[in-house]
User: Which sequence fits this backbone?
């Protein structure tokens, strides 16, 4: 702590000396000439700054091109949901418009900074206004942004208003967030999720489902998210503790998970996990990742450690809000499969009503088993006493 205070004092002392130096320079301005005062830019300074502006412009363009080449392959690529292409299209249009605007405006900004650099004796030309130019550079952004906003609202309406267009065979799934884990609950045969509240959390009922609600009896809990291809999935999101965000990047889906309220989102999966694994771009990424893991495994085994397992692509449900120390590890595997496989997987799961009933029976069983030996001991004791009395009578 003492060392920190010493460093702070030295820094403040340095700032004070620097400020005193500046004040001294200001007191000498009246006695200095144009060439003697370093605070006044010369023609040479302005020329150097003009060329530096061009250099910075070149840096922007070169770095932009380099970024596209170096990291362009990291984009997600093929979307795995029905609304994904529309979402990507909106994003691509926005990026193209931004790229064109940025390229032109940055060039003009730096070019004019060079062309109209300061010169001794040169006075700026006063140009009051030009209604035609004002109209042009106002109406163009208005038209472009209006079109972009209208298309965005159209996409938003198609993606977000799920309840109004819910199909009869839509599957309702609750996604439950808690530090630092995800759980899911599927609606049963009735197609409805039972009511839930954190106050009902007890034992196997880790989602706080209200078991007095008839719709809750056939609900199914799971620790892995399975989705059938081609079916509309309507998600209901709840949080047990803090603000989370359910992020499913390959489905272009994200929704905040807020404590005390239910948020929702929906989409139709269009590619199974196996189909996405056969995607050329995904195969290339997986190969690259495994190449890196192979090199790392060689280092680990050389140091006596355990080699890393080969990476296999899986869809993931991630948390996109910094929700605590283990936020980075809050994820759940998503399996997209054909409808028959999904139905088979779901059929093998116990309903919540059965799971709660079995748990209660399991809690009651040990008490009964402990009571049996006590009864037997009492019976044996009574038999022993009776035998002793009979023996005494016979003896007499």
Assistant:
């Amino acid at each position: 702590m003492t060392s920190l205070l010493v460093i702070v004092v030295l820094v403040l002392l340095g700032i004070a000396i620097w400020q005193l130096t500046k004040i001294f320079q200001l007191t000498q301005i009246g006695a200095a000439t144009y060439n003697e005062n370093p605070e006044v830019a010369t023609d040479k300074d302005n020329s150097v700054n003009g060329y530096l502006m061009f250099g910075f412009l070149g840096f922007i363009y070169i770095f932009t091109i380099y970024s596209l080449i170096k990291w362009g392959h990291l984009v997600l690529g093929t979307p795995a949901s029905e609304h994904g292409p529309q979402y990507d299209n909106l994003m691509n249009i926005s990026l193209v418009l931004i790229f064109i605007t940025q390229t032109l405006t940055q060039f003009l900004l730096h070019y004019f900074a060079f062309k109209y650099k300061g010169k001794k004796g040169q006075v700026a030309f006063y140009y009051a206004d030009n209604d035609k130019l004002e109209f042009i550079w106002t109406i163009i952004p208005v038209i472009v942004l209006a079109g972009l906003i209208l298309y965005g609202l159209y996409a938003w309406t198609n993606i977000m208003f799920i309840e109004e267009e819910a199909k009869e065979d839509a599957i309702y799934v609750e996604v439950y967030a808690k530090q630092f884990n995800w759980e899911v609950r599927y609606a049963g045969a009735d197609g409805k999720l039972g009511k839930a509240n954190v106050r009902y959390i007890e034992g196997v009922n880790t989602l706080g489902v209200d078991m007095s609600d008839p719709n809750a009896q056939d609900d199914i809990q799971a620790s892995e998210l399975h989705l059938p291809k081609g079916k509309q999935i309507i998600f209901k999101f709840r949080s047990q503790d803090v603000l989370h965000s359910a992020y499913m990047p390959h489905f272009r889906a994200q929704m905040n998970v807020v404590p005390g309220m239910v948020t929702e989102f929906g989409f139709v999966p269009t590619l199974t996990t196996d189909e996405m694994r056969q995607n050329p771009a995904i195969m290339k990424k997986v190969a690259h990742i495994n190449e890196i893991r192979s090199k790392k495994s060689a280092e680990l085994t050389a140091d006596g450690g355990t080699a890393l397992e080969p990476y296999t692509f899986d869809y993931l449900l991630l948390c996109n809000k910094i929700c605590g120390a283990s936020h980075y590890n809050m994820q759940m595997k998503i399996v997209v499969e054909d409808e028959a496989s999904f139905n088979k997987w779901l059929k093998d799961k116990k309903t919540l009503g059965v799971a709660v009933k079995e748990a209660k029976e399991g809690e009651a069983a040990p008490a009964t088993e402990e009571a049996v030996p006590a009864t037997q001991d009492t019976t044996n004791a009574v038999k022993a006493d009776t035998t002793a009395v009979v023996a005494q009578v016979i003896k007499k």
